[in-house]
Amino acid sequence: MNIALIAHDRKKDDLVQFAIAYESILADHTIFATGTTGQRVIDETALEITRFQSGPLGGDQQIGAMIATDQMDMVIFFRDPLTAQPHEPDITALLRLCDVYHVPLATNMGTAELLLKGLQEGFADWRLIRKSRE
After folding, report:
1. Residue 49 · residue 42 · CB < 8 Å
2. Which of 40, 73, 104, 112 is most deeply packed, by most CB within 10 A?
3. Given 9, 14, 43, 60, which residue is catalytic?
C-alpha cells in the first residue's frame, strides 16, 4: 500500500513520534512524504521514504497527482488547525482529492492510529470493497 505522510510545521514532532511508534507497520508499505517531513522521519527511523517537494513548494500537489492517478492508497496529514497556512488552497485541493477518490485520510493522530491498526489487522483493503460496489 502507498502511504503519504505530511505534517504542518507545528505537527512535525508529533508525526515523527507517530512514525517511530508505528515503524513496524509502516515498514511493510511504500512511504511517500513531503520534503521536510520526510527528512525528519528518515532521520529518526529506518523507513525508506520517497520525498517530494515541501508542501508550499508543490509537495501537496505531487501527492495529489498520485491520488488522482490511483497511485496513493492512504494519506496521513497531521494538520495544524490553529495556524493559518500560506498554501491553504493546495491543502484544500489535497483533502478534496482524498474525498473524490475515496482515499482514507487521517488529519490527526487518533484517526491515523485507527487506519494503521486496520492495516495491521487486514481490515483496510478498501479498494477491493469499492471495486465490488462498482
Report:
1. yes
2. 112
3. 60
Residue 11 one-letter amino acid: K
Single-letter code of the amino acid located at 28:
D
- Whether the Cβ atoms of residue 53 and residue 59 lie closer than 8 Å to each other: yes
Other CB atoms within 10 Å distance of the CB of residue 22: 20
| Catalytic site includes residue 80 | no
Q: Quote the CA–CA distance of 24 and 9 in Å, as a whole number.
A: 25
Q: CA-to-CA distance for 99 and 90, rounded, in angstroms?
A: 14
Q: How many CB atoms lie within 10 A of CB 61?
A: 16
pLDDT (tens digit, 9 = 90+) per residue, 68-80? 999 999 999 999 8
Query: What is the CATH number that goes with domain 2-133?
Result: 3.40.50.1380
Which residue ranges make up each domain of the chain?
2-133
Dihedral of alpha carbons 20, 76, 123, 47, sign? negative
Determine the Cα–Cα distance for residues 2 and 31; give it in Å rounded to an integer. 6
CB 81 within 8 Å of CB 10: no
Give, as one character, the DSSP assignment of residue 103: -
